[in-house]
Design goal:
GO terms for molecular function: FAD binding; oxidoreductase activity. Keywords: FAD, Flavoprotein, Oxidoreductase, Signal. This protein has 510 residues and is of the alpha+beta class. Helix content is 35%, strand content 20%. It contains 15 helices and 18 strands. It has a seven-stranded antiparallel β-sheet. A five-stranded antiparallel β-sheet has the order 5-6-10-8-9. Strand 13 and strand 14 form a beta hairpin. Helix 5 runs antiparallel to helix 11, helix 8 packs across helix 15 and helix 9 packs across helix 12. The structure holds flavin-adenine dinucleotide and 2-acetamido-2-deoxy-beta-D-glucopyranose (7 copies).
Length: 510
């Protein structure tokens, strides 16, 4: 038995065992309803166990929640009918696009949830309108195929994350950051319309003119409000890219030096005389590496003459040595750049049969003000003292969202149900083990320790919705991901649009 199948089987047994206490659902009414509506679906007992395993297995092997059933609709009408079946039987529903939810929310998000998963893998259209340059994109398209699809139709581009296997559905509706986001906004900001199936089964196309409240709510809280079948996205002409990476690993010799190096990067990042929206920036940290990398949309001459010297001088003044032989500055096409960032040989992702997985726990810290020395020093104390002997593999990435001229910061909560428009930095701490191991408690503790080192020394912080952390209670999640004002407005809308709480997961709006 493959490790994946073993995990899935163990999870199924766990669900059955718990189900014995919490009364497992009788699947017959649901399967009868789906069959009557001619909706393709899979059950754990399906005659094709391979198809079930493929569609029911979570990306995050640490949280292998087993859905009640998976529907594989081919039309919006089928999605609508499936939602009505579930609603009439009080079965929770979650859409699944790329399946990359950190919390396995697209499989229900809880061992007891018994969720109907609406897998959007048949919604793969990518069509660019040559008058408006708006792309109509199916709710199941993965980011690599999205980038290739719009580039092939007139060399168009969108800002979005780096991993080609991530799905549009979760990523675009919960923020969505890529190195081009300072130039073009978060993935979410490029949505000009959504075709969405509501809890009532109604299908609406929501824009800033029509169904405004739905348009607003879906951009930030789609998982609580419906299933987006088609996204309408405003594309831009693809830029050419200068891609850079500077190795500053020597700074990890001490936490004091690493702190100075990071604060030097921050002072560079806030320097409006050199930093414009054309710059995307991140700092990647492991136990043995510290790199400053990103992209610049402009000529390599301008980069070498202005941006690079400002960054390198700041690091030098902080006493941090840049290993030029482990650094690089290259001119790339848009697609070459995305391919490098994606870390796979190609951006193309199979339309069906995607089975890449990871076994991980991650969390995030977002700040809207520059870091003071204290949280950074406390953070590097953990990195330098404990990083090498951490109980799990880990990395951290600190991305610049705000700063001079960032196009993310021009919006606010009146634009979308999203709290992160004023983020300056977003830090992600990510721990993982191989698929055949059990993620240890000590690994959870280590990732928490990294995160806490910062948050214990910050007056204010929040967290990034696309790096959703399932260990938060609903109340903590509301506070960190949305804030009271947004939650209040969303709850009121939820009561109107989804009074039976059909679209739910452990942290959804209610
Ligand atoms: C390897 C990897 C790399 C990543 N890189 C980045 C990055 O560079 N930048 C970044 O910002 N984030 C990144 N992320 C995080 C990623 O953006 C989120 O995990 C995202 O929510 C995944 O979207 P998905 O469609 O694949 O997930 P899913 O698990 O399918 O969905 C996530 C949530 O959204 C809901 N949902 C999905 N589709 C729809 C829909 N059509 N309508 C309504 N609700 C829907 C689901 O029900 C679920 O609650 C990365 C994640 C991974 C695993
Ligand atoms: C492109 O969009 C315009 C404006 O919405 C619309 O009138 C036109 O029909 C679209 N073109 C195609 C080919 O769909
Ligand atoms: C738009 O133009 C591109 C070439 O610039 C072409 O490849 C594509 O097919 C056109 N799209 C439509 C819908 O006509
Ligand atoms: C820019 O700088 C890099 C080294 O940092 C160098 O390899 C490259 O040749 C330079 N390019 C130009 C056009 O100056
Ligand atoms: C900003 O960058 C310019 C150009 O490199 C430099 O001269 C200036 O000292 C920097 N300012 C700060 C506050 O670092
Ligand atoms: C890079 O240069 C340093 C000396 O500056 C040397 O110690 C190291 O081995 C070199 N690394 C590579 C990969 O060439
Ligand atoms: C939010 O943005 C809108 C539109 O740009 C603007 O009118 C409003 O004043 C902003 N609100 C706040 C609190 O900044
Ligand atoms: C676990 O998986 C890794 C690769 O992911 C493999 O190298 C290792 O041998 C496996 N260990 C066991 C005990 O199966």
């Amino acid at each position: 038995m493959s490790p994946l199948l073993l995990l899935t089987t163990l999870a199924t047994l766990a669900t059955l065992a718990l189900g014995a206490i919490t009364s497992p659902r009788d699947i017959t009414p649901l399967s009868t309803c789906l069959t009557t509506s001619s909706i393709p679906f899979l059950l754990p007992s399906s005659p094709n166990p391979t198809a079930w395993t493929l569609h029911a297995t979570t990306f995050n092997a640490r949280l292998p929640f087993v859905p009640l059933a998976v529907v594989l609709p081919t039309t919006t009408a089928q999605i609508s009918a499936a939602v009505l079946c579930a609603s009439s039987l009080n079965i929770p529903v979650q859409a699944k696009s790329g399946g990359h939810s950190y919390a396995s929310f697209s499989s229900g998000g809880d061992v007891l949830s018994q969720t109907l998963v609406v897998d959007l893998e048949n919604f793969q259209d990518v069509v660019v309108n040559n008058t408006t340059y708006v792309a109509s994109v199916g709710g199941g398209v993965r980011l690599g195929n999205l980038a290739l699809g719009i580039y092939a139709q007139g060399e168009r581009a969108l800002a979005h994350g780096t991993c080609p296997g991530v799905g549009i559905g979760g990523h675009f509706t919960h923020g969505g950051y890529g190195y081009s986001s300072r130039a073009y906004g978060l993935a979410l900001e490029q949505i000009v319309g959504v075709e969405v199936v509501l809890a009532s089964g109604e299908v609406v196309t929501a824009t800033k003119e029509k169904y405004k409240d739905i348009y607003w709510a879906v951009r930030g809280a789609a998982d609580s409000f419906g299933i987006v079948t088609t996204f309408y996205l405003q594309t831009v002409p693809a830029p050419s890219v200068v891609q850079f990476s500077y190795d500053v690993s020597d700074a990890l010799a001490s936490s004091a030096l690493a702190t100075s190096a990071f604060l030097a990067v921050q002072s560079f990042a806030l320097n409006a005389s050199v930093v414009t929206r054309e710059l995307g920036l991140g700092v990647t940290i492991t136990a043995s590496s510290f790199a400053v990398h990103g992209t610049y949309f402009g000529s390599i001459q301008t980069f070498n003459a202005t941006v690079a010297p400002a960054l390198l001088n700041a690091l030098k003044q902080a006493g941090a040595k840049v290993a030029m032989n482990k650094s690089s500055v290259q001119e790339l096409t848009w697609i070459e750049s995305l391919t490098r960032l994606g870390g796979a040989p190609t951006l193309a992702v199979p339309l069906t049969g995607y089975d890449s997985r990871d076994n991980f726990f991650a969390k995030s810290v977002s700040v809207s003000n520059p870091f003071g020395e204290k949280p950074v020093k406390a953070y590097f104390d953990v990195v330098v003292r404990e990083g090498e002997r951490a109980p799990v593999d880990w990395f951290a990435i600190i991305n610049l969202y705000g700063g001079p001229d960032s196009q993310i910061g021009v919006r606010n909560e009146s634009f979308a149900a999203y709290a992160g428009f004023d983020d300056l930095w977003v830090v992600q701490n990510y721990g993982s083990v191989t698929l055949n191991e059990t993620f240890p408690k000590s690994g959870m503790a280590f990732v928490n320790k990294l995160n806490d080192a910062m948050t214990n020394n910050l007056p204010e912080y929040s967290a990034y919705l696309n790096y959703i952390d399932p260990t938060y209670t609903r109340e903590q999640a509301y506070k960190l991901y949305f804030g009271a004002g947004l939650v209040e407005r969303l709850s009121k809308l939820k009561a109107v649009l989804d009074p039976k709480n059909v679209f739910r997961n452990p942290q959804s709006i209610w």
